[in-house]
Specification:
The protein is mostly helical and 335 residues long. The protein has eleven helices and two strands. It has a two-stranded antiparallel ribbon.
C-alpha cells in the first residue's frame, strides 16, 4: 500500500484559490465516472420533484412554517411539529443531496481529460438553478403556498431536469460539430413535440394550483379557475403530444431514420400511454394521493423522454486521433 502524499503549503494555497483546478490536476476520472455523475444529478432532480409532491400531497407544505429555519426558534423540525414537520424538513434536507450530486457532476466534468469547458458549464448551470429554486422554495413557504409560486417552483425544477438531461447526453458524445441524422422537416416536427410538451407541463401546474391538493390543511389560496375544466384542456394537450409522437414514429420509419431516434420515439410513446392511463384513473377516482404522485413521476419521465428524442436527432462523434496514412509511412521509410 503506497503512502499518502504530503500536502505542502503551496498545495494548500492552490487548493484554496481554485479547488476544482487543484482536483483536476491530480485526478482524471474514467469517462463512465463522468457519465454516472451526470446521471446521478438527473436522478436527484427527479427525486426532488417526487418528494416535493409528497410534501404537497400529505398537506405538509407548512410543516416548517418559516424559512430558512424550520421555526422561529429552531433550525430543524421539533417533536411538537409531528409528521408534517418531518416530511417538509426532510424534503429541505434532500436539497443538500441534490447539491452534492450536482457538485459531483461539476467536479467530474472539470477533471475529465481533455477538459470540456461546455460540459462543466452545464454542471454550473444546474448548480445555479438549484440555488435559485431553493430561494424560491423559501418564498413559497413565506407566502403561505401561493399557487403561482408553487407552479414557478415546479417549472424551475423542470428546467433543471432539462439541463441535467443535456449534460448526461453530452457526456456520452464528443465535442465535434453536431451532424444531423434526419431532415429539416423531421426536426421541425420534433420541436413542435417539445413545445407541446412544455405547454402540457405548464397547464399541469395550473391544474395543480386550482385543484384540491393545496399542500396544507390550513386555508391556502388557489388559482381561481375550475380545475376540472383546466384538467380537460390538459388532457387535450396530452392527446396532441401523443399524436405528434405517433406521427413522428411513422415519419421516422418512412424516411428510414437511424435506430437512435426510432428507439427514443418508441420509448416516449410508451411513457405517454402509461402516463395517460394514470391521468385518467386519477381523474375518475377523484385524485387519490398515490395516483397524483405517480402522475408527477410520469411527468418527469415524459419531459426527459421528449428531450432525449430531440437530442437523438444529431450525433457528435468522438474525434479519433489521426493515424499515419500510406504517404506518411512512405515518407518515413525514405527518410
Amino acid at each position: 500500500m503506497g503512502g499518502v502524499p504530503k500536502l505542502t503549503r503551496a498545495d494548500a494555497v492552490s487548493a484554496a484559490r481554485n479547488p476544482l483546478a487543484f482536483i483536476a490536476e491530480r485526478w482524471t476520472p474514467h469517462p463512465r465516472t463522468v457519465q454516472r455523475a451526470a446521471l446521478a444529478a438527473l436522478v436527484m432532480a427527479v427525486v426532488i420533484v417526487v418528494t416535493g409532491g409528497a410534501v404537497r400531497l400529505t398537506g405538509s407544505g407548512l410543516g416548517c412554517p418559516t424559512w430558512p429555519t424550520c421555526t422561529d426558534d429552531s433550525l430543524t423540525t421539533t417533536r411538537a411539529m409531528g409528521f408534517h414537520g418531518v416530511i417538509e424538513f426532510g424534503n429541505r434536507m434532500l436539497t443538500y443531496v441534490l447539491c452534492a450530486a450536482v457538485g459531483w457532476a461539476i467536479i467530474a466534468a472539470r477533471s475529465e481529460k481533455p477538459w470540456r469547458r461546455g460540459l462543466t458549464r452545464l454542471g454550473w448551470a444546474q448548480f445555479w438553478i438549484v440555488m435559485g429554486n431553493a430561494v424560491l422554495g423559501g418564498i413559497v413557504v413565506l407566502v403561505g403556498l401561493n399557487p403561482y409560486t408553487v407552479a414557478a417552483h415546479f417549472l424551475l425544477t423542470t428546467a433543471l431536469m432539462a439541463v441535467a438531461t443535456v449534460m448526461w447526453q453530452r457526456t456520452r458524445e464528443g465535442d465535434a460539430e453536431p451532424r444531423p441524422l434526419v431532415g429539416k422537416a423531421v426536426q421541425q416536427l420534433v420541436w413542435f413535440l417539445v413545445v407541446a410538451s412544455v405547454l402540457l407541463i405548464a397547464v399541469g401546474t395550473v391544474v395543480t394550483g386550482a385543484g384540491p391538493h393545496a399542500g396544507d390543511s390550513a386555508k391556502v389560496e388557489r388559482i381561481p379557475l375550475d380545475w376540472e375544466t383546466v384538467a380537460k384542456l390538459h388532457a387535450v394537450l396530452a392527446w396532441i403530444v401523443v399524436t405528434l409522437t405517433f406521427a413522428l414514429w411513422f415519419v421516422l420509419k418512412a424516411v428510414d431514420a437511424p435506430k437512435g431516434p426510432l428507439d427514443r420515439t418508441r420509448e416516449l410513446f410508451v411513457i405517454l400511454l402509461a402516463q395517460g392511463v394514470i391521468g385518467y384513473v386519477q381523474y375518475f377516482t377523484h385524485l387519490p394521493e398515490a395516483m397524483v404522485a405517480a402522475h408527477m413521476l410520469g411527468s418527469c419521465a415524459m419531459w426527459i423522454g421528449a428531450l432525449r428524442v430531440l437530442l437523438s436527432l444529431r450525433e457528435r462523434p468522438t474525434p479519433v486521433a489521426d493515424l499515419p496514412g500510406p504517404s506518411t509511412e512512405t515518407a518515413l521509410a525514405k527518410a
